[in-house]
Amino acid sequence: MPNGFIISKESWQRMSEEERKWITFDTMQDMHLQLRSLRRWNKIMSGAGGIVGGILAFFGLKVGA
Question: Is residue 39 a contact partner of residue 55, using CB atoms and an 8 Å limit?
C-alpha cells in the first residue's frame, strides 16, 4: 500500500539503480492490487445493477399491463 511519500526528480537521480527498481516494483504491485479491487467492485455493482434493473422492469411491466 502507498505510504504517502513523493519522490522528487533530484532524490530519484540520487538513488541507486536497485532502489529505483524496488520502488518501481512496489508501485506496480500496488497498482495491481488497486486494479483487482476495482474489478471486483465493478462486478459487484454490475450484478446489483442488473438485479435492481430486473426488478424495476418487472414492476414496470406489471403496472403497464
Answer: no
Measured CA distances, 59 to 39, 51, 53, 62 (Å): 30, 12, 10, 5
Residue with grid cell 536497485, as numbered in its chain: 18
Task: Give the model confidence (pLDDT) of 1-34 as tens digits.
Answer: 556 677 888 888 999 999 999 999 998 999 999 9
DSSP notation for the chain? --------HHHHHHS-HHHHHHHHHHHHHHHHHHHHHHHHHHHHHHHHHHHHHHHHHHHHHHHH-
Q: What is the pTM of this model?
A: 0.59
Per-domain residue ranges of the chain? 15-64
